[in-house]
Design goal:
14% strand; 49% helix
Length: 269
Amino acid sequence: MRSADAYAAARGQGRAALVGYLPAGFPSYGGCIEALRALADNGVDVVEIGLPYSDPVLDGPTIQAAAERSLRHGTRITDVLRTVEATAAMDVAVVVMTYWNPVLAYGVERFAADLDAAGGSGLITPDLIPDEAGEWLAVSENLDLERIFLVAPSSTPARIAATTAACRGWVYAASTMGVTGAREATSSVAPALVERTRASTELPIGVGLGVSNGSQAAEVASYADGVIVGSALVRCLLDADSEAAGAAAAGALTADLARGVRTRAVVSP
């Protein structure tokens, strides 16, 4: 399943899609699979699997801590691809979130082919802009893989137009400036960013950075096509006494978030 299809299915139900992020190999390979199954069983529409990286410039402390633990366990790109394959078998759409250097080191064409073979629908590339993505644009086009670039509150209209033109599948709207992390309130500039982005594309727009509970998910779902949750889910695993308890906590949070995207709270002007 492509993530664009998951967005379309959610739209057909009159709601936003729920996108849940976890880094591969955390808290272990098996523990990650168990947690991802909990997400799939409790209402996530798209799973975003993080490729752990040693220099995660856009990741906040929660995701950094998880990625560091995963790397200490020896997680490699082949393990990430195994995670993609296992998750795709859960009947959810799967994308990989990765910085670009690991893809370059593995080989862009090889990575894309292996991702496609594993059942992944595409890549989110937070540190890659379309101007510098020539090889990825060509390879993803040949394999019909989704390429999900980021827009941000600082993006100019010209940059938004160029970014969305290069996207396939959907657009990732980073609703705050700075690193990732759960927050007590969602971004006040996110609705305006989504509105500006809609002026340039008909692709679905997912909003990420900061959502940590169902009520915040409902708020974001009132103006966005997708609600992306990462750090709050990772925190469930970091704080748990066991992998089973972590998966259960992540499943419970996912159920709350899934109720939220189905509520679609009305945001005051």
